[in-house]
Amino acid sequence: VPGGGAALRLCSTRVAQGGINKPVIDRIIRVDHAGEYGANRIYAGQMAVLGRSSVGPVIQQMWNQEKVHLKKFNELMVAYRVRPTVLLPFWNVAGFVLGAGSALLGKKGAMACTVAVEESISEHYNNQIRTLIEEDPEKYKELLQVIKQFRDEEQEHHDIGLEHDAEATPAYSVLKTAIQLGCKAAIFLSERI
């Protein structure tokens, strides 16, 4: 396998020799993979509804970053030998429905969804960063760099949502709260199942 396959094998060997806290790393990678998978489905749903609108390029740009995030977590799942959550088929449908449903409310609704999800994910990534630093920041240096970079990009998506009038969505606070409760439930379940 050219390039990428060899790198994954080397990373996998190095990880196995590193004496990692396997349950913690499994939980982090499993839930982050599920989250990035769900984010991809949300943006797919938004693009299905708003792809040809004026906000389509903005959504596409954020989706492109999410695709990179998912690709990286796919690689980390192999490298760390982590099984995915069994809930992926559910997140496939739920993510798309959330994305399309929020987009049916218009540009502001889609952006309100983005703000709610990305705020939840940024907070979640911050919790993981604290956990890994408490464990051993040197041992988990590479994973910390990935999570910090992705957290920063999720925060950018959050800010883009605010710049595109997310808060002007009717019943914004109710919508945001409902989506964030769903995110917390998804995180809880995906870490464990």
Protein traits:
193 residues; disordered N terminus; single chain; Heme Oxygenase, Chain A; 0% strand; metal-binding
Oligomeric state of the chains in view: single chain
Distance between the termini: 32 Å
Q: Please outline the major beta sheet.
A: none
Q: Estimate the global geometry from the Cα principal axes.
A: elongated
Low-confidence stretches: 1-17
Write down how many β-strands occur, each being a DSSP E stretch of 2 or more residues: 0
Measured as a percent range, the helix fraction is over 70%
CATH topology: Heme Oxygenase, Chain A
Q: How large is the share of residues in beta strands? A: under 5%
Q: Provide the succession of SSEs.
A: HHHHHHH
- The secondary structure category is mainly alpha
- The domain count comes to 1
CATH class equals Mainly Alpha
Mean of pLDDT: 92
CATH architecture: Up-down Bundle
Q: Can you summarize this structure?
A:
Helices cover 81% and strands 0% of the residues.
Provide an overview of this structure:
The chain has a single domain, classed as Up-down Bundle (Heme Oxygenase, Chain A), CATH 1.20.910. It is 81% helix and 0% strand. The chain has 7 helices and no strands. It has helices at residues 4-17, 22-50, 56-79, 88-104, 107-135, 141-163, 172-192. The longest helix has 29 residues, at 22-50. One of its GO terms (cellular component) is nucleus.
